[in-house]
Each structure stands twice: as C-alpha cells, then as structure tokens.
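Step 1: inspect the first sequence and its tokens.
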Amino acid sequence: MRLLSLLLPACLCFLGIPAQAADDSRPNFLFIYADDLGWGDIACHGHPHILTPNLDRMAKEGTDFHQFTVVNPVCSPSRTGIVTGQFPSRLGVHQHFSSHTQNEERGMPDWLDPRVPLLPRILKEAGYRTGHYGKWHLSGGGISDAPSPNAYGYDDAATWTGGDRHVFDGTSYARMEQEGGAHDQHAASFLSVAATDHALKFIRDAHDREAPFYVNLWLHETHHLVSATEEDKAPYPDIEEPHRTYYAAVTRADRQVGRLLDLLDELDLAEDTLVIFSSDNGPENSHDQPGQKFYYSQGVTGGLRGRKRSLLMGGVNVPFLVRWPGKVPAGRVDRETPIAAVDVLPTFLEIAGLETPEGFRGDGESILAALKGKPFERTKPVFWWWPGKHGGDDWPTWAMRDGRHVLIVDETEQQKELYDVITDREQATDLAAANPQRVGTMWSAIEAWRSELPTEIDPTLQTSEPPRNSPATGNRPRLTREEMFAKKDRDGDGQLTREEYLHRFPDQEEGKRRFPGFDDNGDGVLSREEFVTPGKK
C-alpha cells in the first residue's frame, strides 16, 4: 500500500491531475477496547505483577495519555460514545442494553439507533473496509430482532453479547459456542483469541485489496466471567488465586494486541496504521469469597477513587495508548491533555480527510494536534449522567469536566464536589467550598445540557411495536415469533429445550428467568404454540 501511495501521485501529476486531490494515502484505524480493565492494570502504569509486554511496547512506541475518560462508567453507553461521537444520553442510552423489560424500566431503547451518523458507516462510504470483532453490546438481552452490525456500517462482524454471527463461528473454536461462550468458564478464555483470529484475517484481506481499513477489536478481558487456562496461568506460578486468574486473563489480552502489532509489521503497515488501546470503563467491583460472582475480578485503578459504575475518576479514567509511527511521538507520556471517548469519531474523520455529515451534532472534537504532540486546548466540556444504582463510590449522578476541573453531583443535587484532576487525579481535595462561583457556573451548564436530553423513546427502537422492514433495522426484516422458534429449534423436533432457548441468549440469567414464563404446562420444554403465542394454554 505504501508503494502504491508513493507512485500514484507521480502518475497523476504526469496526467495533469493535482496530487493532493487524489492522494490515496489514508491511514488505517485499529481500535482495541478492553472490558472493565482498570487504569492500573498494565505494567507501564505501575502494576507490580501483571505482564503486559505488548501494551508496554505500544506506550514505548507511541504516547500514553493519562487524562482520557470514557463518557459513561458501563459498557453499552461507553461504546456508544465511541462510534457516534455523541454523549450516549442524547441517544437514550444510559446503562447497558438488556432485556426489553429492563430497557423499558430504564427508559432506554432496545438497541442503539443505527440511523444516526456512525463512524463505521462514514468510513465505509468513503472507501474503507470496516470490521467489528468481539463484544458488541449495542443491543443485547436476547432480543433476536435487533439490527445486525451490518446495519451500522460494518462490512464484516463476529461478536458476542448481540450481533448475528458468533465470534466462534468459522474458527477452530466453533464447538465452544455450545459451551456457552462468555458464560462458560472454559469458553470465555477463548473469546478474544477467536475475535483476534477474525481481525487478523480481515486485515490481511483488506491489505490484499489495497483498501484502507477500520477495525474494532473489542476484547472480553476483564469482564465477568474472568477466566484463564492453565497455559494462561503459567507465567504466574507464585501468584495465588484469585489474582492468578485475573493476571493471566490480562496477559492473554495483551498477547492478542501483540498478534495484531506483529501482523502490521509483517505487512509493512505499521506506519500506515493508527492503533489505539483503551477500556470501556474502570474495573469491576471485587468479591472476597470463592464462588461469589466477582471473585476473579481483581482489577485496580492505580490509586483513583471509584470503579465501574462510578463517575469518580476510577470509573471513567482508563488507559489510552496511541501508536502511529512517524506521526504520534514515541515514548511520550501526556499527563494533562483532556481527551474523551466522543473525540474518537471527529479525530478519525480529520485524519481520513473526511467531513462530518451534514447536520451532525457531535460532542467531541478532533484531538489530532494532541496525538501529534502539539499544543491542544479543549474547547468543549464533557458531561456524564449515571442513573443507575447509587451508593458508596457510585454516588455521583451528574458530572462535568471543564478544562482541568471536574464537578460531580449526587441525585439529590445537594452534594457537589469539585476537583482539579490535573494536579489531583486521586480526587483527594474537594475545592467546591473555595470555588462557589465555578461550582455554580458548571452546575448551570449541567442543567442546560440535561434539558436537551430526550424524554421519550423512539417506538421504532422497541420490540414492543415492531414495524417490519423498519428503517431502524437497516431494512433487515424482523423475525416473527414463528421464525424465531424455527431458528432456535436446532434439532428440528418441534420443541425447544431450555438449552436451545438459551442458545446465543446474551444475558443467560435473564433467559433462565424468562423460560418458565413460556412453559405453560411445566414439562420443561416449549412447544411451538407455547413459544409463538405465550400465555395462551
């Protein structure tokens, strides 16, 4: 590709065409998103035990930004901010996508609206090959008629937690899909490996086509279930559980990053590819006793207050390593530049030489100057809303960042704390009492922002009113219950076992809860009539 980009301008000049007008040297984009990985969970951030040589390599060959924040402290809305360049609450996405009942209770749609401007679609329409591999969770909860990743602008995808094609499909791990994928202690150890297999194949194919590519690799680590094989644990013979499994899982994820970096080197694409590594939110809360759900979730924040589900820095300030040889300074640590997840879309578009869609209201701004090590002053504030459960360090409901200051406010709007997160990332010194004017100005800005947020859900994004061939599904017909039954009836015997019903059900606990509600006669299997016309005996 590099040779082509050098020869093409010369040929075009010979033909009398301005070289810059037909420059085909657009870089590739590789965005790697870990799941529940804490800021302190990598060696280059000071973890004393976890081995992350490939992430350390990214930091050595690129820039480590310490002030990057996601725009929500849990999965689905955090990821929404990446692909839309908008605060997720503008799109009605406040918490993770779950079952229709839970989404409705939270005032959320059942999936991210695929009709909004989206980074993959914009790049695809500009000639990029687009692929998404790994976790999806822009829908979920077992809602089978949700739009596929293709409706969002991806040429190819293989996923878990939503999506059509499971990440194990077409790989040597296909049999593990029957074991439960993300919900099986063994299969969960291979989700990211399989996703990386897909990503490697896709990159090779794009290279063969001489097409620029945009690839998401959204890793499983370190989301529950945190799991590791004995081979994974081998580098940690002297570490006791539960930390041994956690450390091994992080190192396994690091190996997948290394596989991708090695392929870019092999294909001579390193200088043509911007690689970003980050995490969707801070580390999961830990449990102390074996058998408890989060016993193996042993991530750390590097001294930051708060964890996943908290608007304190430990919940939203996560790793952000950027490598682009020759463009992004190597070995640099940036401790001051405020960067947010909504900046990814405008930055990628500027790098690709593309305009934002007409009428697009983005909440981010291009940080290309900061990536290149040049002076950068953020002009847009960052806003957060967390309407989930509150308690402990999860108490903040509203937050705003303006420059170096972060204001956090509780659900009663009475408790307000202000921090200078440049000099005090640990948020140890509350500056609110000494700065009442700043607190008042920032709170007024939060109130103005939340007044812009939608109060109603678009009914075309709910399964309760399913217009077939709705534009919300990218013109992909929704499945009727009869069609869903046929798809789930894997052995074709005219009834669904519990295992068949739960097959590819992203939220297994929710699926187990719902199954008995269909089983009218209590015989442990679902007839076609029970499934298609629930509640009618």
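Step 2: inspect the second sequence and its tokens, then contrast the two.
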Amino acid sequence: MNTLLTRCGTVALLIALAGCAKKEAGVSPRGTASVNLVPDSERSRHFDAVNSHLELGGVLYGYADIDGDALALASSAQVLVHQLALTQPQLAALDRQDLKGLFSELGLNDIKAVGFSSVREADGIYRNRTFLFTPAGRHGLLAAFGGRPGRFIGSKMAPPDCDFYSETEFDVNALYDTVRGVVSKVGGSEAADSLAKKLKEAGAGSGFSVLDVIQGMRGRMTIILRMDPQSTYRLPGPGGAMIPAFSAIVRVDGVGAAVSGTLSKSGGMVESKQGSLTLFTPRSAPPLAGLKPVLAVQGKAFFAATSPEFLQECLHRTEGIETNPEFASGLAALGPEGNGLTWVSQRFFGRLRDIGSLNPNATAEQKHVFDVFALNVPIVTRPLLSVRTNLPDGVLVRSSWNQSLKADIAMFTIYNPVTIGLMASMAIPAFQKVRQASQEKAIQNNLHTLYDAAEQFYLINGASSTTYDQLVGPGKYVPEIQPADGEDYRSLTFRKGLPLIVRLGDGRAISYPAGAVSPAATHLPDQPKSAADAGRQKVYDQIAVVNNLYTLDEAAKKYCIEHNVDTASYADLVGPGKLLAEVKPVAGEDYTPLVFTRGQRVEVRLADGRIVRYPLGATDSSPRPERTSEQAPAPDDPKAQAMIQNLQVLNDAANKYYAEHDSTTTTFENLVGPGKYLPSIAPVAGEDYRSLLFKKDHPLRLYLKDGRVVTFPLQRQE
C-alpha cells in the first residue's frame, strides 16, 4: 500500500516537474536579455575592460574606442594650422610646433577608451557611471587627478547634518610640471625658466610666492556647508535681499606654510593661537551681518571658515557625516575609498528655493528673478552622492544623481574640442575683420561727435581752436567719449577747418572727415600730394573759410542789433574786448577789409585766387545761379529766418557729405539722423525738409504751404 502510494506520488511529481520545465523553456525569464557581441577578431581590444565598469540596459549606454584619435587630431590640427598660417602670420610660431609632441606632453593620448551608462531607479534618481580607460597610467593634465584612492578623511570633520560635503584630491604641482614642459617645448628652456621666475616673484610683495603655493598644493581640499533651517543673512547694499544663513569651512592641504607668513604680516588681520592652530581674524566688519569669518593655519593645512565656533566644532568632532545613515548607505554602494566625493542633501536645494519666500517685500523685478531661480533648482527625493576613484587602469566616476548623463553627452557632441577648433579656425579671421570694421565705425562716430562739438565751440566762443577737455565732460558739449580700441582722443588737435585724426596702437589712422590726411603729412617734401589729396584739401580750406565768414556774419548781426546800425566792419567785430577775440586765416585769406551789411553777401579771396562767398555761393570759376523770382524772407520775419538757418545747417552738412563721399548729390536721410551729420532738424511752421533737392553748387529751395519759396543761399536781383 505504502509502496503504491509512494510510486504514485513519484510519478505525479515527475509529471509536475516536466510540465514546469516545458513551460520555462517556452518563455524567457523576466528581466533577462541576450546581447550578441561581435567576434573577438572584430571587437575593440579595450571593450571588455571598460564594459566591466558599466551597466547595460538602462536609459544610456555608450562606449568609444579613441586609441590614437588624439594623435590623429594633432596631425589634422597641424595641417589646419599650416594652412591658416599662410594667411594669418600670427600663427607662424604655432605652425612650427610639433603638435603630436605637445598632445603627448599634455597626456591627451593616455585615454584609450571611454564608457558611460545611466540607470533610472524607482525614485527617479540615476545611477551614473563614467570610465576613462588609461591602461598605461596617467601623466600631464590627467596627473592632476591625484594618485591612489584612500579613505575620505574629511568625513570626520563634516557634521552628520551637513548639507554639502566635498573632498577632492589634487596635484596642482603635477599640472605645473606639465605646463612648464609644454612651455619648454614651445619657447625653449629660457621660456620655462622665465615662467618659474615670474611665478616665484608673483606675490612676493605680499610675503609669499605663487610658485611655493603651487608646489605645495598636493593633497586634498575639503568643503563643508550646513544650511541654517531658520536664520537668514541680508546681502549688503540698499534693498539687499535675504538669503538662508549657513556655516561653512574650507580646508586646503599643503599651502599652510606658504601663506602663514603673509597672514602674519597683514595689517588687516589679528593673529592669535589656540594650541597648534594659528587663527587670523579680520579687523574690519564682514559684508554679511552675523558672519565672523576666520582664517587659520595648522601645519601645512590652511582653513577658511564662517566663524571660529564652526571651525572648532569641525576640528574637534568625534563623529562625522559617516554616521548619517543615508550617507553611509550611499557611500557603501559606491565604495568607501576614492579620490573625490560630493554629497548634497535635499535641504540644500530646499533652502535655495526658499529665497523667494524670504523676501516678501521684493520688487516685481526681484520676484521674477527669484521665481526663475527657484524653477531651476532641482527637486530631489534623496541626497545626491558622487565618488571619483583612480584605478590602476583608469578613472571611474560613479554617482547617484538627479539626472542622467544624456544631457552631458548631447552637450559634448556639439561643444567638443574638434568642433570648437574648426569653428574657431573659420570664424576668427572673419571676426577680426568684422571687429576691425566695427571699431573703425565707432571711432568715426566719436570723431564726428567731437568735430561737431568743436564747430559749436568755435561758433559760440568766437574761437578757431579748442581742446578735448573743453569739449568733453559733465555739463560740456559731449558728456563722455568711450574709446573703441584704446585710442587717445586727448592727443587730437582741434583747429577750425582741419580734420581730426587719431592713430591706433596697430598703426592705423582714422580721420574725420573720412579720408583726411594730417596737415603735417601734406607738407612733407618726400610725400607729394596726389591730385585727389590736393582737391580734398581745397574743399577743407573752403569749408574752413566759410565757417570763419559764418562766425563773422553772426557777430555782425549781433553788433548791428546792439548798436542799431546796418553795417559793421571787421575792426568793429574782432579784437581784444570785442565780439570776437581773433579770426585766424586758414588759406592765406585777408578778412580785415570786410564790411558786413544787412542782407548783403561778403566775399574773400584765397591765396590761390579762389573766391569764397557768404552766404554760400559759387566761386568765380563756377556759373552763378540763375536769377529767380523767389521770395526772399523779410529780415524781420523770425520764422523765415529760422528756416534759413535750418537750410544753412543742411547746406553745410551737404557740403561735408560731398567732400567725404566725392559726390555731387545727397538726400535728407543721408544727412539727418542718429550718428549722422545732424541729429535732427526741427520744422518751424510745418515745412518738409525731406522734399529738398540736394545738389552740389545749387541752392536749396524749400516750398511752403502758403506758396512762398525760401532759398539758401539767398538769390537776389542785382
């Protein structure tokens, strides 16, 4: 009986097992995946070493074999630099360098492969891993990452409730050795010695050597910060915003001895001793009320803290952040040893988001800034932790972070060194040309502004020269002039009728009016003037003479009004104590015989025989304007006189335009507007100056709504 039952049970069990086995064979187990790799003969020889540090199947997995790519990039860069040097002489020195050797010196060829992966956990945190494969070791720039991994000794200093803790191993001296080696390859041993000498001398006036600091920075730097859940600090200045209060400490190993002497000699510090610790507290009040900053040196270690109390609390702590359960579990998952660690708590981000609520009386603009800031502060469900570890065959970075590596990878695809280099090689020459043209335009505008200001000065003060300081400054003709390329406008010579010329550091000369030559250059016997230069100078002479006649005519009008007469001689107007102190000839002309009569034109003969009339008219060699029946405004019609003044200003601007552009016509739009010859023209009685026809040696005719025609220069029956 028992035997029968036993046999039946055995058969049933076998049937059940067979059924289960058949079912499992038909369905793949949940959570498993089959990945087929290429044959060994086709596989990257670094893949297995990198893949062993990564996780496959998450939101991101990447591998790249870059063995030899750095040297290939150096070869391509060498060809590119050579091609650019043919048109850009400043690259000749770089063209002579062995870029492959420089890349190797920098250690860029040490990395043979890279890998990265990201896995999203249930609470939205990502397990990220990045591995740089350096099977032959690291040197050059990569040597700055430090040496063998070790315990994070700073964790004893950090309070269990700290909100930010970072500990990083560094070797700045190795970085300096790399830079010195590159300098030696590029500039020779003398250049390398010069670099060391300058670093040695730098800071000597303050009692320390920058080189000593660099050579001492071989250790770890620790940063600890704890946010106060209730207290706040007010930023300095009127309407200073409130921010969360905090306590912080920074420890830098290796530089204590290099800076202690400087701190001891500083008159702004008070030195005191507490056991092996030397404290330095500032004499002046801190920028934030509530802070009590302190600097300290203990052996080779240098400390900076927000208060002596927090410094002592961290130095004498028996239990640190390693007793925080979240920190302990997170570090256990990533590894207790390493060369770099970063820990950020949820409260750190929460207090940053509180800034808006801490400032209820902020302005609308400030509130907008706070809102935008808060939107960009991440919301995390648990603390963030990242650990960097130097392994025998590479550098591994593992983190539990609030975002995956996808954003970083996407950014690198655009902003990688190759793309940036190629874009720069194409953009720099074009940018230089655009920048140069932009600078020249800005300088031209500055000179234009100064030229117009000088013209106003001559007119108002009856002068023929002035200085930069008389024109520029608060309450003067021009409030301020901003140099565009370091040019010195104080060196300008301001003389009536002469162009303004400023020289730049690279030897270029910019002038206003454009294309003008300096007066000195026109008189050099070994630099004969061309026909174009001579013609241009004649135009400048004529403009200067017209300006003199204009000044004399304005003074004559004033004299006639004051003395109730119709005529005024030159002797009535010019001399000590008179309306004009002096009128200097510019082209050999003689103003002394002139007599100014109301409504009549005056003329003066230049040394070369040309005759210049005022109001402006044709020279003797040019045809006179034909007589017309246009109405001349009555002398006592103030509106008409104002229109004539507008026309005269426009006529002067047009003459400048003709001279500068070698043209015989122009338009109102070319003359009037921001940055042009005239900022604006204000109508007197609704007249439209845009309807004017601007043509060289032809009068301007302004047609009014009442049928009159106002002309400048005035056309009269003779």
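Step 3: confirm your contrast with the notes below.
Residues 1-30, 517-527, 617-636 have pLDDT under 50 and may be disordered. The longest strand covers residues 218-234.
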